[in-house]
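Quick one - first record:
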Amino acid sequence: MAVVARQTVWNFFLNLFGGNEYAAAGACGNMQWESGLDTSNAENEWNRQTGHSDSWLTTRINNCITQTDPYITLQTFLQRSWYVNNIGFGYGLSQWTAESRRTELWNRTITRGTHIDDVGAQLQFVEDEFTGNATSGNWSGVRNAMMQTTNVHDATYIYCRQYEGGAWSSKREEYALGFYNEFAGTSSGYPIVITVNGNGQAWASVNDIQVFYADAGTRIELAAIAGEGDYFQLWSVDYPSSLQLEDAVTVAHNYFTMPNSKVNLTAQFTGETPPDPPYPPVPPTPLKNHPQKRMPIWVYPCMRT
């Protein structure tokens, strides 16, 4: 069980929706309604019909990922664990229900070498769905609509109906207002926006916790992992131009110090075959069956004194 801190969720959505506090509150309220901000949350109806707990389900998913449970494979897991009477149920922060979205979450978890209830992996998936970087769907149009909202009600409703696809409940708006009243006007630090260009994932973290806002002077860790068939090419510093990475921009695992401004970075991935690294010259092939040459032996007389 991993319950995400309210401040973390608020900062994440505030960053995702361009600083629009109404949009951030609406998204936070919906996420609280959907999962209680618990990354391991399974849909309540699934718990009721199977008699199993969230931790039971999450443990088996993670055992399958690490291959410590020989009785579970991805296919049998999807068929026996997520489906009851051929009905799929939700899981995680956004209660992902469609098989394509849950499978992509699964694959992303494996790629990052972590568990399916990992906070960073799930929030990154949400971000990629809203920015057009997820293969299972593109909600970038919903993101644009959220960024234009001017009140909490509209933001909550748009997120509910167009992203979650769930039934409306006044509780969603109640939770959203709670976030707005708690955090509006209080966010500190500056946003970190990482755009992915190509097939891969990239994120920023502090002490192994993914971050989307950070105070000036904080040392930020960057990570980039290429998808299948691609390789990491370089980090592109989009803003501010004065930002310096600690290592060369071609190093995927990198660091920088947060300036007194927002930071925009792009992780460039490419499907082109990388050039071969330089190799030392190949030694010539030795001659075989070469007739031995006899050299004359010179004998010098022994000199006596």
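second record:
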Amino acid sequence: MIKGLTHNVDGSLNHATRYRGKISTGYGPGEPPNTTNHPVAAGFFRMLKEVTETQQIGASKKEVAIKKWITNSVAQSSLEAQNKKSKTPRILEFVSLFHSPKDFWESSLAMFSSTEGLLCRSEGEGTPARYLTFDGNNERVWVDREFDGVSGCLYRNCPDFASGKCKPLGLMKVFPTCDLSTMPYRFETRSINTIIGMESALQDLWTLLNAAHAIRQMEANKQLPFDGFFGAKLLLVHRKIKSGGREVFVTDLFPSADFNEMVMQPIKRGLDEKKNKALLEGAAGSVSLLEQAANNMIAGPIESAESSIPLDASEERDIAVNFGADAEEIPAEATSDGNAPEPNKGAETLMSEGPGK
């Protein structure tokens, strides 16, 4: 441990995650079939891996190593097989190997430069805004940004946000079942609709997990270990919606059929217990199993999906270069009037059918 270098002064690790690949829903600048200099929507999930290529630049033909993302053909074929062999897979099943939402999801306001990577980052209005600047030795340093002498993010009143330079960013660590390994993939999004949907779903599912666990403890009449999201199978679903008068793609989070049964069965038992007790003579004022579980949930703090995943320099630059603010917008040629493929099934069927059925 080297405090101030490998660890913070409080002893917490400056963690740098090693990723197996990236899950994308778009094409990067100049990446076929995209011929533009900005990302465009693909309309389906793409499994990518990072490769290093040697290129010659300048008149001297100096060789330099260039990192780029390309399709992981093996993982992509496996994902397509899970989606009834569709070449435009819009359902991605993954397993959570983390306990709480904050371990695998984060969102922030961030401003990037294609040359410097992350320039400014905060968790919203009134929170500290970490800003990149240079000290007297022209070294890259981070400081708390101030506006008129006041520290903290101004959100809508920030000139960078107002000009469109600062945008929301969501990042999720994903272990897809189509290519499960010891290292996660990362899924990035600039879509505010996706970010709001993710955080709403995570909060709802986390509350249900706590309720189901509390009921199991009541039934066992003893303390039981709480695994949270660990081992849960979940689904990312990419679909098209109307937002602000235009069609955009969003990615939603849904429970798998297995997860749904695991959580809802104990809750159903609790509801049945409540009903049975209500029918008993003299049951007025009695406390049911479900009510006791709810009281335990209220008494104990429930973790939220607050940001906890640090961005290292390589992640910052990769996001800045490969992922733009318009990456989840549908270009004019790919709207419902054009060739964009419609989802194979509606998200409303996923709870009962599961992926690839």
